[in-house]
Amino acid sequence: AGDGAARDGFQRSRLLPKKRQQRQRWVLCSLTYGCLGLGEPGEAGGRSAASPVYSSLTVSPGGDAAVAVVSSEQKVYDVVVKQAALLKRQLRPQQQQAAPPAVAREMDAPRGGLGEAYARCGEICEEYAKTFYLGTLLMTEERRRAIWAIYVWCRRTDELVDGPNASHITPQALDRWERRLEDLFAGRPYDMLDAALSDTITKFPIDIQPFKDMIDGMRTDLKKARYKNFDELYMYCYYVAGTVGLMSVPVMGIAPESKATAESVYGAALALGLANQLTNILRDVGEDARRGRIYLPQDELAEAGLSDEDIFKGVVTDKWRKFMKRQIKRARMFFEEAERGVTELRKESRWPVWASLLLYRQILDEIEANDYNNFTKRAYVGKAKKVLALPVAYGRSLLLPYSLRNNQT
Ligand SMILES: CC(C)=CCC/C(C)=C/CC/C(C)=C/CC/C(C)=C/[C@@H]1[C@@H](COP(=O)(O)OP(=O)(O)O)[C@]1(C)CC/C=C(\C)CC/C=C(\C)CCC=C(C)C
């Protein structure tokens, strides 16, 4: 169903009436302006109504402005629209309407079965992401357990390509992982941790598509070690991190008092995932290069007069500093885009999101403080700064949703 919908989305975006194309383009501009090297609005080369925002927007042979090649942003935006529509209708996709599996019902006792499965998810989450885990403790029990279950599925998926057995992972293994995902969405979990997610999807309107897309991202990671331009990198970041934002919104919930559209909240969640992943990439340039990987837009590297060899050599030069400044600026734009959306989440869900946003964004400051040496130094946010971020995050979580301030929507 997810694949079909994605195809529909692709077709739809090619055939969008002009007005809708313009509206979508505006929304996407707000997510991407500056991201293609454009300056601030009003700056020379900045965003204007005529700015070519999409890297792959083309003009048809007849000269008629048309979206002949759909950009990654457009494709992802179609997913956002679909996810938002599902949430609005509080409709579960067909796979999720299956009755809870017998195995899950038997396991619903607080200490045995499902209770234990969720507890194990919590332990894994605490082990890998302590600060985030602490943040989830503020959420209602049902939401917290659901976020843990999603976290564990994402972590396991990531471990397939990034963990100790990564060198043995084949596309076939990912196909098997995807079949397992389909089974758990159909109420047939394979193991205890899958059972927690299988239960979660019966409680929240979570769609399978972002999960499938994450697996697709891992497939990309197996075969692709270079990204031609930001459009390609954008797609990769959506697959491995933007998807996490889309999976999380139905659980975190939009505040009942919020006047924001579901689309804009999903857009913000996507932006936060992208911002986190771009930051992760910038922090890990040296580490990735040692594995032969360069998750940076090749065309922008070339524009800056840099080559793969320069990355492998790992010497900080003025060219590198200039290149990095541009990349950091882009990542910060996505964080900014996400901020408004966090205020629209349910009050009790905001703290962990603010905490992760503030902490992850600080990694960018640390890269600057290291004079852009991300080849041999790992940008790291110290304990004191981490601790300080928590009350700041808490303070922000008390703020009124942005859509309620001065009648903004
Ligand atoms: C509150 C919160 C942050 C919830 C998300 C919880 C969740 C389900 C996380 C899953 C993370 C995960 C294991 C993803 C697998 C792919 C991957 C590794 C992505 C990278 C994460 C960090 O990785 P890692 O732990 O290896 O990093 P360190 O090396 O330890 O630094 C990513 C960079 C992506 C993370 C993306 C998010 C957390 C998405 C955030 C967006 C939301 C929660 C939506 C919030 C809603 C609005 C409206 C803004």
From TrEMBL:
One of its GO terms (biological process) is carotenoid biosynthetic process. It catalyses: 2 (2E,6E,10E)-geranylgeranyl diphosphate = 15-cis-phytoene + 2 diphosphate. GO terms for cellular component: chloroplast membrane; plastoglobule. SUPFAM superfamilies: Terpenoid synthases (SSF48576). The keyword 4Fe-4S does not apply. It is an enzyme of class 2 (transferase). One of its GO terms (molecular function) is geranylgeranyl diphosphate synthase activity. It is found in: Plastid, Chloroplast membrane; Plastid, Chloroplast, Plastoglobule. It is a peripheral membrane protein. It holds the Pfam family SQS_PSY. InterPro entries: Isoprenoid_synthase_dom_sf (IPR008949), Squ/phyt_synthse (IPR002060), Squalene/phytoene_synthase_CS (IPR019845), Trans_IPPS_bact-type (IPR044843), Trans_IPPS_HH (IPR033904). It comes from the Eukaryota. Its EC number is 2.5.1.32. Keywords: Carotenoid biosynthesis, Isoprene biosynthesis, Signal, Transferase, Transit peptide. Belongs to the phytoene/squalene synthase family. This is 15-cis-phytoene synthase. It comes from Triticum aestivum (Wheat). The gene is PSY7D.
